[in-house]
């Protein structure tokens, strides 16, 4: 993997080659990753994997059209060929009046801020194995756990660099450390599985293996002997590790590209009251050591904190340059780039703010309800907002979490779900999209 300075230089060199090949404008991205992971199962080493990849991509604009191309060869001759081929492709492509680089006057000019994303700690395969073994041992020591699907530990580093023909150049690296465990409780047809995981930028921030393992084992045992639930209308409480998917659906509908295509259930709802006035959903790309932090976006624009929902109202769309031109607005610094192709929008560290009630207080008045801990399938219509997913979890009886339940479907419409959504105060921030325990009343449950 190149250093950030070397990666930036390669991108700048490729942009210069595109100019000399006849491009009107261009940008180049370099994406590299290196990681090592160890998997254990039942105390024995199961897999050790080392992976490395690097890719450079070029996007050129010529005569109102654009083309993208990429290569894993970063040599001078390969870059020469890449530039000439990209320009030739663009000259054969149809014109796109919305395509182009980000507005020059909006580019990040003050230098790339340091967000402390890169931890120099190196973990050997032996150390990764020790962490995985400790996590699995803790999970298997939970009474009722009968088998293991394994535990894993990994460490890696990634690098992103971007250069544009109109004056931006920057690069940053980011490390990652993760630990997971998955175990089985029960025997035969009554077996249940569950898991726990944690990922951080810095090794020192990773949860202890015993914590990961104990949570995996406890969750698996709690799911034993699930019953069935009757069909009907119920208040539904979402565990934080699945409740964040509701915010994910919101972000997808807030994409400027979806709005421009008129393919979003939020169409014509800009700045409308969507949630209770107590709900705030924030996005902060500058969180130190944040899992989705980034100093600039995929088009060279500065990133900045923003509330997506404030006082229950959505505050606008997430837009790259192409979508902003379609909608007659400005890009919002949410463009993201892979190693090839045009930008798309992504959020960074998204948090649905906590409420004032504890989870117990949030559920206290529920005589008969559902607590969801797992969602299955992807039955969400991004155009209509219709929501229907398989689920498992627990009954809520007289305000208390009761027996495990499985094989039911939870359904509604996201607009109605957002309107009735309430949040507890148990927010923990580490997933990328983080929410506290969430309650949504009046959902349809299909069971027996």
Automatic annotation (TrEMBL):
Supply the SUPFAM superfamilies for this chain.
Answer: Putative modulator of DNA gyrase, PmbA/TldD
Q: Where is the composition biased (Polar residues)?
A: 325-339
Q: Quick one: where's region Disordered? A: 325-346
What are the residue boundaries of the Metalloprotease TldD/E N-terminal domain, all occurrences included?
27-90
* One of the GO BP terms on file: proteolysis
The Metalloprotease TldD/E central domain covers 119-224
Q: The organism sits in which domain of life?
A: Bacteria
InterPro entries found in the cross-reference section = Metalloprtase-TldD/E_C (IPR045569), Metalloprtase-TldD/E_cen_dom (IPR045570), Metalloprtase-TldD/E_N (IPR002510), PmbA (IPR047657), TldD/PmbA_N (IPR035068), TldD/PmbA_sf (IPR036059)
Residue limits of the Metalloprotease TldD/E C-terminal domain? 231-447
Single GO term (MF): metallopeptidase activity
The record's GO CC annotations read: cytosol
Family as reported in the entry's similarity comment: Belongs to the peptidase U62 family.
Quote the protein name from its UniProt record: PmbA protein
